[in-house]
């Protein structure tokens, strides 16, 4: 059982960053120095422990968040290495939901890059304390001060240096610990394992004293005792600084910043010390909130004596055990042989195995205590975001919000034999990845798979072929459009059958009104009991909401519609739920066709970083694609262009951008909103989809 002392020594942390900031390399060094791996894995060699998927090793990027456990200074650290590419942002989202602290890795040359901002905002949303690691201090153009300034400017953070670099670029020799005022060197012949403490060389004394003064000044704002000592010029011990820094970090007032070069094995041990010193244990975070079966708010403390409450934050297909469910235990103990209940699915679950994970390797355990992270084997009904509790208990923790997919492609099996395997494989991927959807088009009968971007779908197709051994043909990417109504409309419909079978009768009048953006679809009944009895209202609501899944223009779902039942009639002998459901669907379709339907398309937020000399070419190309330029900012010899563009125009944009800038510009793109398509272009799109 996890005692209070044991819980205080657990750290559940995520490592997050922009793509190519060195996040996975940093994680590899952490595993090496904590003794979790006995050889240094490198991303560029394709043998990084945490990037274990074939697709990750080939592309040199992280796709799936990997979990591992290691130990440092008598503390247990559960680490989740999250992807940096925006197409896999859902992996970051679900990991942040169950983490207590985050290490944000920044590139000393690139500074705060677009995806760094996205993941930082995600961490803000979950109120997660952070420490920062400025990596790649050995690279040409590295600037520690520039990185701190950008964190303040672009992230709205309050960074404070706790270590600073001794030299930079080729002259980077180690880091200066500002708390102890010592230079830390990392012996190269021991792969950085041996840390040598030395007095700060004269060349860095003035800069390090000024940085230490700045650290104490910032801490004095949050700690009165420390402020008294600082104002009275009394000595402040390292332990007092650590306590004050921890307090400010947990309160989200400060972000302690460390530096180093993960690739050159410098600066990782001080970062590990910081994880243990400044990031929260499960005891430092507020109790988790959920709802009991009566809808009442309940809280669960991080305590083994409390009833079990565990959140499943990820499902992963495993070639050996079938399906793995990653779980964070918030309270109680999850033990082998225990009866589990999933209140969201209203199903009992049985455990086959309990595992602690190390990337794709694992060890079996008998139990996982409060505050810990592990994986379960044998769950049949559980989905991502579900809560598990003890049999007989019922608590539902807040689930995880997942973004809507914005791009789709048609996929079909190459042979009849592949048909069943394709369906089964897609079902397994849908279970794993909530941002991936599969639908069958009513018009064409095609299977359409949808995701967060071209790379996302490319990886899914690659997995189907390699991992699931399915032979499939893939169509070109298609945009996932939506439809909306511009004006209110009312329609009535009557459904009657007569003849040899049972006679049926249903008559409704439905009003459809455009709702505010983002309100979603809703239904309201405004009829009296004598017009239509309550017993039929549920069937009418289902008929209405189901019909809104397919709009009148080309069959895409309708967004933000308020439907109201305003009239109708029933026959005591003939009326049935089915008749009312059919009548509601008919009335809805009629009203939608008369309510000025328009086509909506996904708009993407773009951020392009380009050298000055290519700015004109980049903007010209964006104008041709119908993009709206929001702002252009000059930044360290590059220009940062922020724009909004229709997804339909952005397929293959990476190739266009490379050819316009000789491969020197980079961009990130993420879904922003659905917006109305201009009339002339909408006409072309509708004709194309209908196949005229």
Feature tags:
single chain, 692 residues, alpha+beta, 17 helices, globular
By DSSP (H or I, 4+ residues per run), the number of helices equals 17
CA-based shape: globular
Helical residues, percent: 25-40%
Summed over residues and divided by their number, the pLDDT gives a mean of: 85
Radius of gyration: 29 Å
Number of beta-strand segments: 37
| Beta-strand fraction estimate | 25-35%
Strand order of the largest sheet: 18-17-23-14-15-22-19-20
- Any low-confidence stretches, pLDDT <50, length ≥5? 41-65
Strand pairing plus helix content: what structural class? alpha+beta
Largest sheet: 8 strands, antiparallel
Distance between the termini: 68 Å
What can you see in these coordinates?
The protein has 692 residues and is of the alpha+beta class. It is globular. Mean pLDDT is 85; it is low at 41-65.
Please outline what is shown here.
The chain has 692 residues and is of the alpha+beta class. Helix content is 28%, strand content 33%. Strand 4, helix 5 and strand 5 form a beta-alpha-beta unit.
């Amino acid at each position: 059982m996890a005692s209070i002392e044991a819980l205080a020594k657990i750290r559940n942390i995520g490592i997050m960053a922009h793509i190519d900031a060195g996040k996975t390399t940093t994680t590899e060094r952490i595993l090496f120095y904590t003794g979790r791996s006995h050889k240094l894995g490198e991303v560029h060699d394709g043998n990084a422990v945490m990037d274990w998927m074939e697709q990750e090793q080939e592309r040199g990027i992280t796709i799936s968040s990997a979990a591992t456990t290691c130990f440092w200074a008598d503390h247990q650290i559960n680490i989740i290495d999250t992807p940096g590419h925006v197409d896999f942002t859902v992996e970051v989202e679900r990991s942040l939901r169950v983490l207590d602290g985050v290490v944000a890795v920044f590139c000393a040359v690139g500074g705060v890059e677009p995806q760094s901002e996205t993941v930082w905002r995600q961490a803000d949303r979950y109120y997660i304390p952070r420490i920062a690691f400025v990596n790649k201090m050995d690279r040409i153009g590295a600037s520690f001060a520039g990185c701190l300034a950008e964190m303040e400017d672009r992230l709205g953070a309050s960074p404070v240096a706790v270590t600073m670099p001794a030299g930079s670029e080729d002259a980077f020799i180690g880091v200066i610990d500002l708390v102890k005022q010592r230079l830390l060197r990392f012996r190269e012949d021991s792969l950085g394992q041996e840390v040598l403490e030395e007095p700060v060389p004269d060349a860095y004394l003035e800069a390090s004293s000024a940085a230490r003064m700045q650290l104490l000044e910032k801490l004095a704002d949050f700690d009165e005792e420390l402020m008294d000592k600082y104002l009275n010029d009394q000595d402040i011990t390292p332990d007092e600084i650590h306590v004050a820094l921890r307090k400010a970090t947990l309160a989200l007032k400060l972000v302690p910043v460390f530096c180093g070069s993960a690739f050159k094995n410098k600066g990782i041990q001080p970062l590990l010390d910081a994880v243990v010193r400044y990031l929260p244990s499960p005891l430092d975070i507020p109790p988790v909130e959920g709802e009991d079966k009566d809808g009442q708010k309940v809280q669960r403390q991080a305590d083994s004596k409390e009833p079990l409450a565990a959140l499943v934050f990820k499902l992963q297909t495993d070639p050996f055990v079938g399906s793995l469910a990653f779980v964070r235990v918030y309270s109680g103990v999850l033990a082998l042989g225990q009866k589990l209940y999933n209140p969201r699915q209203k199903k009992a679950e049985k455990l086959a195995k309990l595992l602690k994970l190390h990337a794709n390797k694992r060890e079996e355990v008998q139990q996982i205590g409060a505050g810990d992270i592990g994986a379960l084997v044998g769950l049949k009904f559980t989905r991502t975001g579900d809560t598990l509790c003890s049999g007989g208990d019922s608590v539902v923790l807040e689930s995880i919000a997942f973004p809507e997919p914005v791009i789709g492609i048609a996929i079909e099996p190459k042979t009849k034999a592949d048909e069943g395997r394709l369906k089964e494989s897609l079902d397994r991927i849908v279970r794993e990845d909530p941002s991936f959807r599969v639908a069958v088009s009513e018009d064409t009968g095609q299977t359409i798979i949808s995701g967060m971007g071209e790379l996302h779908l490319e990886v899914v197709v690659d997995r189907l072929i390699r991992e699931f051994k399915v032979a499939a043909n893939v169509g070109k990417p298609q945009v996932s459009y939506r439809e909306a109504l511009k004006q209110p409309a009312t329609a009535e419909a009557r459904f009657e059958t007569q003849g040899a079978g049972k006679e049926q009768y249903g008559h409704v009048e439905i009003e459809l009104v455009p709702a505010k953006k983002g309100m979603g679809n809703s239904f309201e009944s405004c009829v009296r009991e004598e017009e239509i009895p309550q017993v039929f209202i549920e069937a009418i609501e289902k008929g209405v909401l189901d019909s809104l899944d397919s709009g009148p223009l080309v069959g895409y779902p309708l967004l933000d519609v308020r439907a109201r039942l305003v009239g109708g009639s029933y026959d005591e002998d003939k009326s049935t739920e089915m008749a009312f459901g059919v009548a509601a669907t008919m009335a809805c379709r009629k009203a939608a066709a008369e309510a000025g339907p328009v086509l909506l398309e996904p708009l993407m937020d773009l951020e392009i970083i380009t050298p000055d000399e290519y700015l004109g070419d980049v903007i010209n190309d964006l104008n041709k694609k119908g993009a709206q330029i929001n702002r252009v900012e000059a930044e360290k010899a590059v220009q940062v262009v922020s724009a909004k563009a229709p997804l339909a125009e952005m397929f293959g944009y990476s190739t266009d951008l490379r050819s316009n800038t000789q491969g020197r510009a980079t961009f990130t793109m993420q879904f922003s909103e659905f917006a109305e398509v201009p009339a002339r272009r909408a006409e072309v799109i509708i004709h194309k989809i209908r196949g005229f």
